[in-house]
Amino acid sequence: MPEFEKLGVQILSMSIDSVFVHKMWDDHELSKMVDGGIPFPMMSDVGGKVGTAYGIYDEQAGVETRGRFIIDPDGVVQGYEVLTPPVGRNVSEAIRQVQAFQLVRETKGGEATPSGWRPGKKTLKPGPDLVGKVWEEWKTDMAFD
Amino acid sequence: MGEEFELHCARPTGGPVGANEESQSDETSEKTSREEMKMIMVGQKAPDFAAPAYHKGKFVNVKLSDYLGKWVLLCFYPGDFTFV
């Protein structure tokens, strides 16, 4: 995951499978998709206690739903997304969100990223002068790629 | 990176670190905490946890708070060998 490495992001994955099953999955399937196998820790949460703490454990099904959390260097959750099992995540969107949160953090909140922002697109500088003037700075077509 | 741990026959598993830890053995409080499962808030601290992990050929212990100072993307998923 060189994209995440470049952004200084540590990926951690977790499911209710044991570490032994993680090893088998990596050895027999994932290493055929990713050269050298999965580069990040694949964590085990048999019983779903951690998933419960994060509010994404489906007790009835006994599995964890597709919860994805962005945690900043202070250990604060900046964003999350939770999907039911049949729909996979959009990795590019996770990257875009990390980039946006990093920009906000670097500017100490001096800049905010409006809807549709991605690197290179215009940010907004919240302040008294911007009140009622967002319409001059941001157009609805900027919400789309 | 987490420390390697010794293997035994039981499947090691993860759990929250801190406040909830003591209450989890007690049956009544476990029920309460289950009923109380709710979504966490953005802008709040991520619940710390420790969990065993498979990482590049080794079994290691991972603690979320070991990564303080870094951005972390924490991804849960339903199960190994599933389809999506």
> What would you report as the Rg of chain A, rounded to the nearest angstrom?
19 Å
User: Would you give the CATH topology of the largest domain in chain A?
Assistant: Glutaredoxin
CATH homologous group name of the largest domain in chain A? Glutaredoxin
Biggest sheet layout of chain A: 2 strands, parallel
Query: Strand portion of chain A, in percent?
Result: 15-25%
Distance between the termini of chain B: 28 Å
Strand content of chain B: 25-35%
In terms of per-residue confidence, which ranges of chain B show pLDDT below 50 for 5 or more consecutive residues? 21-26
For the largest beta-sheet of chain B, the strand count, sense and barrel status come to:
3 strands, antiparallel
- Count of β-strands of chain B: 4
Helical segment tally of chain B? 2
Q: If you average the pLDDT of chain B, what whole number results? A: 83
The tally of beta strands of chain A, per DSSP, is: 6
Keywords:
heterodimer; A: 145 residues; alpha+beta; Glutaredoxin; two-stranded parallel ribbon; two-stranded antiparallel ribbon; 5 helices; 19% strand; elongated; B: 84 residues; 3-stranded antiparallel sheet; 2 helices; 15% helix; globular
Question: Could you walk me through the main structural features you see in this protein, from its secondary elements to its overall organization?
Answer:
- Chain A has 145 residues and is of the alpha+beta class.
- Chain A folds into two domains: 105 residues, Glutaredoxin (3-Layer(aba) Sandwich); 38 residues, no CATH class.
- In chain A, 31% of the residues lie in helices and 19% in strands.
- Chain A is built from five helices and six strands.
- In chain A, the strands form three sheets. Chain A has a two-stranded parallel sheet. A two-stranded antiparallel sheet of chain A has the order 3-4.
- In chain A, a hairpin with a 4-residue loop joins β3 and β4.
- Chain A is elongated and about 55 Å long.
- Chain A starts with a helix and ends in an 8-residue tail after the last helix.
- The model of chain A has no long low-confidence stretch (mean pLDDT 95).
- Chain B is α+β, with helices and mostly antiparallel strands and 84 residues long.
- Chain B has a domain of 55 residues.
- Chain B is 15% helix and 25% strand.
- In chain B, strands 1-2-3 form a three-stranded antiparallel sheet, with no helix packed on it.
- The longest helix of chain B is centred in the middle third of the chain and has 9 residues.
- The radius of gyration of chain B is 15 Å and the shape is globular.
- About 7% of the residues of chain B have low confidence.
- β1 of chain A pairs parallel with β4 of chain B, so a sheet runs across the interface.
